[in-house]
Write a structure and sequence with these properties.
6-stranded mixed sheet, transmembrane helix
């Protein structure tokens, strides 16, 4: 099934991210700027901090209010530049203490997805991910899974077979697969203990499909969120199909709603708590 797999842990200085988050904008991918790009960037934002609705400030001005967890924003072009970004719990800024604060440079020509999420130990953070929006062969689709949850390492399986192994927060892994419906689940790394799923993924030809595993195992609120980017079709005779990684759809529940299976989440939470307890005893 897999034609190419590459482990990436691409954490881009959270630059385009926080600004995008501040503006509540979204875009699918961050490719390296090219010589022909103008003074803008395309950015999409995913909010994966459970239980925390935020207001976002840039250079002291409120740019986004009541941004809710589980949301993937739509693509938008941003002016390149440097922004002082602050994320406050809704209603507590700008005089309160920000949950996250960072000075962010948004590079011209970038195309990125930014995630506000929990670290492996449960602390809010910002991570900028590079989306691969290169063309795929006819009949193929790209699948990327991003581990942005407060949870231990996981394996991702397709049709019962490991697709990605040992994925840790905030890593991602990506591969090209046959287009169509793929049954998938997430298990604790090196085991058959299901943490999320199973569920069917509908991967359409010429799309790049990003799945975010987010939430907290200890709090039993692990959940999936999905984003689909179009325009990766390879067209005969070298004709570009267009699209350039435009967001076809983004949602947090439709495709992988079954991945929030309570039993799997509880099992993962139990393992995480046991590991933390063992660490304290050591």
């Amino acid at each position: 099934m897999t034609s190419r797999t590459s482990r990436t842990s691409r954490t881009l200085a959270a630059s385009a991210g926080a600004c995008a988050l501040a503006l509540g904008v979204a875009a699918p991918a961050l490719a390296a700027p090219d010589a022909d790009s103008d003074d803008t960037a395309m950015v999409s934002v995913f909010h994966g901090v459970p239980g925390l609705t935020v207001d976002v400030y840039a250079n002291g001005d409120e740019l986004l209010g009541d941004f809710e967890p589980g949301t993937v924003t739509a693509p938008r072009s941003l002016d390149a530049g440097t922004y002082d970004i602050q994320l406050f719990e809704a209603g507590q800024g700008p005089d309160g203490t920000p949950a996250v604060e960072k000075k962010i440079e948004v590079p011209a020509g970038a195309n990125a997805t930014i995630a506000a999420h929990l670290s492996a130990d449960g602390k809010p953070r910002l991570t900028a991910f590079v989306n691969d929006v290169s063309k795929v062969d006819a009949g193929k689709a790209r699948l990327t899974v991003r581990h942005v949850a407060a949870a231990p390492a996981v394996d991702v399986r397709a049709g019962g077979q490991p697709l990605f192994k040992g994925l840790e927060n905030p890593e991602e892994d990506t591969t090209v697969v046959d287009a169509g419906t793929v049954p998938a689940d997430v298990v604790l790394a090196g085991t058959d203990t299901v943490a999320i799923g199973p569920a069917d993924l509908n991967l359409k030809e010429g799309t790049s499909n990003v799945v975010y595993a987010w939430g907290s195992a200890a709090d039993k609120n692990l959940a999936p969120a999905t984003q689909t980017l179009g325009g990766m079709e390879s067209v005969p005779n070298g004709v570009d199909a267009g699209g350039g990684g435009a967001a076809v759809s983004s949602n947090s529940s439709d495709q992988w709603v079954a991945w929030a299976a309570a039993a799997g989440t509880a099992a993962l939470a139990g393992v995480l708590v046991a590991r933390r307890a063992a660490g304290r005893r050591g």
